[in-house]
Design a protein that fits this description.
With 529 residues, this protein is α+β, with helices and mostly antiparallel strands. It is 47% helix and 11% strand. It has a five-stranded antiparallel β-sheet. The protein starts with a helix and ends in a 7-residue tail after the last helix.
Length: 529
């Protein structure tokens, strides 16, 4: 799977953090594996092996480095840029599908047998779905041990282990330590935080840092989400964004804030999670990462888009922009329908009314968050009993109900494992839903990096300001040069001040050397572009 170890070793020798999560190096003389940017002295080449995933390194018998925490690196950007079965499986595993449904459930959702799925995933990452999920459980257990005062037995079951013995054995193999030993390693500040919070799993608060790759522009994604925050389910202030999430075993409320940064942006985002059931921690963390697009490869994206003579000016002036995601595919699709042909503020008002009328109230409001977004069944019932609550034309209301019915009966599937092409086709087949909505949902719910909406008013206005043709057909043809990063091109165009065009490329925006991207492309023998 790692087809060019020499380039990997060169990247590890230079301590380049851009490769964290892309591959991992294991040291045979010490029995540990690290991220490429580990500050420890680079071992001799003959003592190093390279793996495409944390799970593959663990399965080979290596334990995680406690200095660089390789299990806490950003995820591989490859799984967001591909739509094949292995990539869809990795996205579902990351969302906790194996913990909830087992490998059999994962295979069933993808339409494959367990044997076929194991073969496909192993061929890509060096180990099977069960081992990958096991590695995620170990990381979840470590987070709970370091950030809560829960008894070890509660931590084991909350992390997804079937027994305390299994949890102890896994932590010993992955971290070469016991649960009590891992808990004792945390800093004094973390200990004070632990003591300041209760141990009741129904109200447990967890504070953690979500790693990301630089450059990172947190304002680009937090500002986008904040400007569209709907009353009751979202809240925003000068430094943070909060929202509720419907999870498999309960609910969660998360507050996200960018950490301090220098010119390249922060290397992590602070996340305060409050979960009704700690078994949802893995899924909640994954959805927060997808919401902020933290697993993207900004260096490769910016370098590709900077080659465009006009769009490159925008990218050079604002490096590290992200494509905002979502924590719930149905919610995003419903809000996309609501927002058709209305202003952002108007859409927020309508969503707030629907949330108040059909949303599930939280047991206690948390920082202005009072509800969960309505379920498909709740929206269908509201349309039948109180249609006037929708405050929208009849055609749009019927489209919203049709979406809710399609999601309920399984005709439309909007989750991390959905196929982007099938999702577009199933959405367009519904009444009142056109290509714009299908592309928008694919871009944000499935993290499709190459979605494009040439009929979008904001895109057409930005094209005019840049001196590009605003005719949808011509604009689509022109956008072929931006593949496979057209979603990122759109967020740059959306962010342009109305009526203004960039005059010159920002100084100092020298792109990285081509060798950086040649290394990433050679790791699996395919060119992502």
């Amino acid at each position: 799977m790692i087809e060019d170890p020499a380039r990997c070793y060169q990247a590890a020798h230079s301590k380049d953090a851009r490769f964290d999560g892309v591959f991992f190096l294991a040291v045979t003389s010490t029995g540990i594996y690290c991220r490429p940017s580990c500050p420890a002295r680079t071992p001799k080449r003959e003592n190093v092996r390279f793996y495409a995933s944390v799970a593959a390194a663990q399965q080979a018998g290596f334990r995680a480095c406690l200095r660089c925490r390789p299990d806490a690196t950003p995820g591989s950007p490859e799984w967001n840029t591909r739509a094949d079965v292995a990539a869809r499986a990795m996205r579902l595993i990351r969302d906790g599908a194996v913990d909830r449904e087992g490998v059999e459930g994962l295979a069933r959702r993808l339409g494959y047998s367990v044997r076929q799925l194991n073969r496909l995933v192993t061929a890509e990452v060096g180990t099977g779905p069960l081992a990958i999920a096991r590695g995620q459980r170990a990381q979840t257990a470590r987070i709970l041990l370091e950030t809560t005062t829960l008894p070890v037995a509660h931590v084991a079951f909350a992390a997804g282990f079937s027994s305390v013995r299994q949890c102890n054995a896994t932590l010993q193999q992955v971290f070469a330590d016991t649960p009590r030993g891992l808990r004792a390693r945390v800093s004094a500040a973390a200990v004070r935080h632990r003591r300041g919070h209760g141990t009741d799993a129904a109200t447990q608060e967890i504070r953690l840092r979500l790693a990301c790759r630089r450059p990172f522009s947190p304002a680009s994604v937090l500002g986008f989400l904040g400007s569209r925050a709907a009353p009751g389910i979202e809240a925003v202030d000068t430094s943070s964004y909060s929202r509720s999430m419907r999870l498999a075993h309960g609910y969660g409320v998360v507050t996200l804030a960018a950490a301090g940064s220098d010119g390249g942006g922060p290397t992590f985002v602070d996340a305060d999670l409050r979960l009704s059931d700690l078994r949802d921690l893995t899924s909640a963390v994954s959805r927060c990462r997808q919401l902020l697009d933290l697993d993207a490869d900004p260096v490769a994206i910016d370098e590709a888009l900077e080659e465009d003579p006009l769009l490159g000016v925008l990218v050079g002036a604002h490096p590290g922009r992200r494509v905002p995601g979502t924590t719930d595919g149905f919610e995003l699709a419903a809000r996309a329908i609501i927002g058709q042909q209305v202003s952002v503020s108007g859409a927020r008002t309508i969503v707030g009314r629907l949330v108040a009328a059909a949303g599930e109230p939280l047991p206690e409001p948390i920082g202005g968050i009072t509800h969960l977004f309505p379920t498909p069944a709740a929206l269908i019932a509201l349309a039948e009993e109180h249609p006037a609550t929708f405050s929208m034309p009849g055609g749009r209301r019927r489209a919203l109900v049709a979406l809710a019915e399609a999601v309920t009966n399984g005709t439309v599937v909007i989750d991390p494992g959905a196929d982007p092409f099938e999702l577009r086709a199933s959405l367009v087949a519904l009444p009142g839903i056109g290509p714009w909505t299908a592309e928008y949902v694919s871009m944000r719910a499935l993290r499709d990096p190459d979605a494009f909406m040439p009929t979008d008013l904001g895109i057409r206005k930005a094209a005019q300001a840049l001196g590009l043709p605003d005719d949808p057909a011509r604009l689509s043809l022109l956008s072929e040069a931006w593949r496979p990063w057209r979603s990122y091109a759109m967020v740059h165009m959306w962010a342009m001040p109305e009526g203004q065009a960039p005059l010159a490329r920002a100084p100092g925006g020298t792109p990285p050397s081509p060798d950086t991207h040649a290394t990433k492309r050679s790791l699996r023998g395919r060119d992502a572009a």
